[in-house]
Amino acid sequence: VYVHLPFCRRRCLFCDCHSVASGKDDSPHFSQYVTKLLADLAVWCQNGGMANRPVTTVHFGGGTPDRIGHKLLADLVEGIGHHLNTSDQTEWAIEATLSGCDTKGISRILATGFSRLHVGVQTFNHDLRKKLGRSTVKEEIIDRLRLAMDRGLVTSVDLLYGLPGHGAHSVLNDLAVLIELE
Q1: Which among 7, 95, 135, 168 could bridge 22 via Cys, Cβ 3.0 to 4.6 Å?
Q2: Alpha carbon distance 127, 141 (integer Å)
Q3: How many Cβ atoms are within 10 Å of 108's Cβ, its own excluded?
């Protein structure tokens, strides 16, 4: 099951997913979105037979799913678990930005029941990160990925290729960092 939460702090230049820039003052929109999403899910479960199908994975993407706030995210996880045939073996996955992967963010992700984390790293190259509007430096990225893995989250990352000035050499450097990180 893929759950799309289209809200982001800002729209990234390279992103082709449906997403909208939103501020913290957009919380009424977040709440309405979650309410309507769960209402639609209830209809599909009742009329479409989805409620009885075993669910192996629930993946939250977007956008930046945790943008809606921890409480709404937890409500959404609970609602999906209520409507769908999830089990202890169901993998709960979430996409995140590095800003959501600090100690507090990782603790919230785990407390909500997620076991897999997918992080939009894009590149470890400092100059390219600046061009992409990213402020987290390589060492901090590595620390946050290690934190997630040390806390037991299965962790994967997005890397970009083909940006201006970002050729095979740069991608190979990014991959070398990830290989060293294991």
Answers
A1: 7
A2: 15
A3: 18
Query: Mean pLDDT per segment of 10 residues, for the chain of length 182 residues?
Result: 84 66 77 94 86 93 87 95 94 93 95 95 89 87 96 94 82 94 90
The tokens describing 27, both together, are: 């919380």
Token representation of residue 149: 């893995």
Q: Which amino acid is at 5?
A: L
Cα–Cα distance for residue pair 117/145, rounded to 1 Å: 9
Rounded Cα gap, residues 128 and 46, in angstroms = 48
Q: Distance (Å, rounded) from C-alpha 58 to C-alpha 93?
A: 6
- Asked if 119 contacts 156 with a C-beta cutoff of 8 angstroms, the reply is yes
How far apart (Å, rounded) are the C-alpha atoms in residues 65 and 106? 13
Predicted TM-score (pTM) of this structure: 0.89
